[in-house]
Amino acid sequence: MIKIYYSSTKKEAGVKAANSIAELLKSKPDAVLGLATGSSPTAMYDELAAMNKRGEISFKSVKSINLDEYIGLSADHDQSYAYFMKENLFGRVDIDMANTNLPNGLATDYAAECKRYNELYDSLGGTDIQVLGIGHNGHIAFNEPSESFSKGTNAVTLKESTISANARFFASADEVPKMAFSMGIDQITKSNKIILLADGEAKAEILERALFGDITPLVPASALQLVKNVEVYGDEKSLSIIKEKHPEALIY
Ligand code: F6R
After folding, report:
1. Of 234, 41, 249, which Cα lies nearest the Cα of 130?
2. Which of 22, 100, 175, 218 can bridge 170 by disulfide, Cβ–Cβ 3.0-4.6 Å?
3. How far is residue 250's CA from residue 204's CA, in Å, rounded to a whole number?
């Protein structure tokens, strides 16, 4: 079941998504959070940090596992996802860093790193909530459009479109890593709840295709239609096409 929550702004969408996570943490303080990077979840992380500061929620017993990491970047590279997580969430809340997990971007034995991450995912018992953004081509984590839905953590080669979308964070497109470790679609969709965040006009078309179009690995996010509990938090722009074609689907 997919619930699509409409907000006017990215900030408002982020606050609603943070409330959903806060609700879980209040009933299950040792929840396992599957986390994402990129620009989509930043307003949600801001609100989670503010709630933590206000003493409304605690991350002391939370465990986290991130979706992905660039291959070739160390944790202290300012474009690594490990660095992003410290800046946007971990460094701002009372989480125990020993309970946070990301793929090791410097691993050179890709198969061994994927195996380690799969075992880690299993040892955590999967995720209570998985946070996601969506790429312009429908990717979730770094599962790019392909012939089949991926299984388990993979070392993936990024599509040109993903490299150019992410070039805005680097000095040039040449500096964007060409590969990444990414959790598989099966691991993502096994979560008890998915929180998908989107903002901006550029996400409007793919969001509608992913949530209402054919279920196909050519649009990896379309796999979310098979998940029991999905909450989508979008701003006015990202939900514009859904509002036009499926107005009844929006929750205000
Ligand atoms: C990030 C991730 C990616 C992003 C997606 C959207 O951990 O897995 O799939 O969620 O590329 O990126 P933004 O949010 O920057 O538009």
Report:
1. 41
2. 175
3. 14
